[in-house]
Structures are given as structure tokens and as C-alpha cells.
């Protein structure tokens, strides 16, 4: 990786000519992870505080929301809203529907984004931005680079089964984490010379392995009757057919040691995202990787924004020295310490405290 950066730095100096000032193009790839994505706010704040300003921002899922808010100049608004969330008002954004293609319609959350972003178009942003989504029928990885930024955000976080797909252009789109959870490849394709990636799932399944011999113990009888799976006594008469409370308890929350729909969906998506992320980062690694330790915070713990932002700050602080070294490799000699021209672009403030 270091050799690649040195090579890129030499090429940049040759193109710029002797004595020319050249600042490397910095790309920021923000990964998915639902509520954990609030850690991206702390990461961005810390990078900017150290004079590291991304030229390109690409996000998947919640990464698209935070990255888009930053690119549109509304990061303060998003952070204020995030810090105000409490369990009771989070429920207010969940417009449950049982007759659509997702458990949550998403209209209330979309209205909140509309209020903050308005009709802002991606192509009008001063910072280059792209949102990653997945086409439902084909599995195509879609990079949304123009149109309304709110639509791009909604499409990128439309978790299948939870949120309804979003129609953008002539395509039905869902969560981009299905194909590219940490979009390093997109940031690099848009011209980033240094790619800083933020992975929110690095410590979720850190000890996953293969259980190569498993089955029921010989002395244990396998029982799968409804009575064992759901200990709630069955109702008599017509009540046994029309019991919404019992159905919700059994199917959504689970019972008798059996996981419910919500747990299975979230855990399955967690596992899938972790495996895809590992594969994608192994094949196309970023130049610098920031990994907040947020694995113990749930996907829907949106009320823990303060903790998550703090985790992002700490993770970014740990990576600052390496990022500054990478930038110094790619800038021309006249932009290094001691020069006056454009020094502010790569300024290195003193060591920040956590």
C-alpha cells in the first residue's frame, strides 16, 4: 500500500511540473450499519478538525445519509436531530404497513429528510457525492450521481423487508449494502487518489468461525410442535384463529427460545454485510481504514447518537497520523512544511485529545 502511494505521489509531481503545488484528491467511503452510522458524524468532524477535507464522498445506506448531509452542508442539522432522538420519538418515524413491500413505509422519515435537504440536487453540490444502491430484479450495483439527494439517500438505506423499495428513474432500488457495504471502489472510480474508508462492522463478528461437526445430542429428543415453540396456551373457539397479540409475539418477537422475525432479519443482514465487506475490502482495500468499535450497539439504537459519535471521533483520532503521512507522500515538495503556498490545504494542527 505504501509503495502504491509513493508511486502515485511521484506521478503527481511529474504531471504538476517542478515547484508546482498539488494537493491529493481525497475520497471518503462511508459504510452501512443503520444506527451505528452516526459514528460517521464523529469521523467527519475529526478529519475536518485536522485539515483533512474530502473532495469526494461516497456512501452506502446510513453512510449515504451522513455523507450526503455533509456534502450538502447540512451535517449540523443531521447531528442536532440525531442527538435529540429518544426511544419514544424513534417509534414516531416508523409508519408500519402490512400491505406493502416493506414493514415500514418510510414516508415519515423521508419527510424529515425533505425538511432538511429540500430539493437539493446531487449535481449542484460543491463536493462530489454518490450514493450506492442495489436494483431489486437484477442485483445491479447502482451509483446515484444526479437527481434529488433525498431520493438517493432513501434508495441506499431501503433495507429489504423493512423499508419499501424506492423508484429512481425506471429502477426499483434497495439498500446498497447488499452489493457494496463500504464503497471504496466507487470513491476510487470517481478520481480519489487517497481513499479513507469507514467500516462499521469490523468488530461485529470478529470471532466468527466454522463449526465443522454439529447436530443434536443423542440423548436429546428433537421436538418441534407449536406448543413447545410457543408456550402461550391456545385459545378456544374462534379466538384461536383471530389472535393478533399472540401472532405478533410469536412471529415478530419470537418465543420459547425461538428468534422472531426482527431478530432473524437483522442478524441475517449483519452476517451478510460482514462477509461481503470482508471480500470487497480484501479485493479493493482502501488506503486508510477507520473502524469504530460499535459492534455492541444495536442497529436500531438510534437514541445512542452521542455514544456513537464519540466512537467515531476516537476511531478517527487513532488514524490521523497515518492519514497525514499518506497525504504528505502525495503532495509536491513545495506544499510540505516550510512552504507558504496553499499550506492551509494540508495543514496539520497539533495533536487532538480524545
Can you walk through the features of this model?
The chain contains twelve helices and twelve strands. With 354 residues, it is an alpha/beta fold. The strands form three sheets. Strands 1, 2, 4, 5, 7, 8, 9 and 12 form an eight-stranded mixed sheet that branches. A two-stranded parallel ribbon has the order 3-6. Helix 3 runs antiparallel to helix 7 (149-156). The model is unreliable at 225-231, 238-242 and 339-354 (pLDDT under 50).
Which tags fit this structure?
354 residues, alpha/beta, 8-stranded mixed β-sheet, two-stranded parallel ribbon, 39% helix, disordered C terminus
The whole-number mean of residue pLDDT values reads: 80
Q: What's the shape?
A: globular
Structural class: alpha/beta
Percent range for helical residues? 25-40%
Low-confidence stretches: 225-231, 238-242, 339-354
User: Could you spell the SSE succession in H and E letters?
Assistant: HEHEHHHEHEEHEEEHEHHEEHEH
Query: How many individual helices?
Result: 12
- Main sheet overview: 8 strands, mixed
Q: What radius of gyration results from the CA coordinates?
A: 23 Å
Proportion of β residues? 5-15%
Distance between the termini: 28 Å
SSE order and pairing:
Layout: H1 2-16, E1 26-30, H2 39-49, E2 56-60, H3 62-71, H4 75-84, H5 87-90, E3 102-104, H6 107-117, E4 128-135, E5 141-144, H7 149-156, E6 161-163, E7 166-168, E8 171-175, H8 184-189, E9 194-198, H9 226-229, H10 244-253, E10 254-255, E11 258-259, H11 261-283, E12 288-290, H12 305-330
Parallel strand pairs: 1-2, 1-9, 2-4, 3-6, 9-12
Antiparallel strand pairs: 4-5, 4-8, 7-8, 10-11
Helix pairs in contact: 2-12, 3-4, 3-7
Amino acid at each position: 500500500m505504501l509503495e502504491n502511494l509513493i508511486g502515485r505521489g511521484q506521478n503527481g509531481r511529474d504531471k504538476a511540473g517542478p515547484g508546482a503545488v498539488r494537493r491529493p484528491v481525497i475520497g471518503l467511503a462511508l459504510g452501512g450499519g443503520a444506527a451505528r452510522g452516526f459514528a460517521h458524524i464523529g469521523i467527519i468532524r475529526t478529519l475536518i478538525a485536522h485539515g483533512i477535507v474530502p473532495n469526494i464522498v461516497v456512501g452506502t445506506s446510513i453512510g449515504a445519509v451522513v455523507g450526503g448531509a455533509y456534502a450538502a452542508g447540512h451535517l449540523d442539522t443531521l447531528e442536532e436531530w440525531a442527538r435529540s432522538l429518544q426511544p419514544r420519538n424513534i417509534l414516531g418515524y416508523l409508519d408500519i404497513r402490512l400491505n406493502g413491500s416493506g414493514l415500514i413505509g418510510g414516508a415519515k422519515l423521508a419527510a424529515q429528510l425533505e425538511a432538511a435537504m429540500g430539493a437539493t440536487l446531487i449535481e449542484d453540490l460543491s463536493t462530489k457525492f454518490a450514493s450506492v444502491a442495489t436494483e431489486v430484479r437484477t442485483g445491479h450495483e447502482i451509483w446515484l450521481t444526479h437527481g434529488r439527494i433525498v431520493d438517493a439517500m432513501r434508495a441506499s438505506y431501503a433495507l429489504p423487508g423493512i423499508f419499501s423499495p424506492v423508484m429512481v428513474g425506471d429502477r426499483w432500488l434497495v439498500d446498497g449494502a447488499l452489493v457494496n457495504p463500504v464503497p471504496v471502489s466507487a470513491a476510487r472510480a470517481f478520481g480519489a487518489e487517497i481513499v479513507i474508508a469507514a467500516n462499521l462492522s469490523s468488530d461485529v463478528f470478529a470471532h466468527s468461525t466454522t463449526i465443522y461437526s454439529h447436530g443434536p445430542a443423542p440423548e436429546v429428543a428433537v421436538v418441534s410442535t407449536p406448543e413447545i415453540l410457543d408456550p402461550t396456551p391456545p385459545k378456544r373457539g374462534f379466538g384461536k384463529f383471530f389472535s393478533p397479540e399472540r401472532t405478533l409475539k410469536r412471529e415478530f418477537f419470537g418465543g420459547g427460545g425461538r428468534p422472531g422475525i426482527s431478530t432473524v432479519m437483522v442478524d441475517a443482514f449483519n452476517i451478510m454485510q460482514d462477509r461481503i465487506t470482508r471480500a470487497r475490502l480484501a479485493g479493493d482495500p482502501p488506503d486508510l481504514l477507520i473502524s469504530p468499535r460499535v459492534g455492541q450497539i444495536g442497529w436500531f439504537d438510534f437514541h445512542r447518537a452521542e455514544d456513537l459519535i464519540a466512537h467515531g471521533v476516537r476511531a478517527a483520532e487513532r488514524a490521523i497520523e497515518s492519514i497525514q503521512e499518506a497525504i504528505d507522500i502525495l503532495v509536491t515538495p513545495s506544499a510540505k512544511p516550510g512552504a507558504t503556498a496553499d499550506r492551509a490545504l494540508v495543514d496539520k494542527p497539533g495533536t487532538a485529545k480524545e
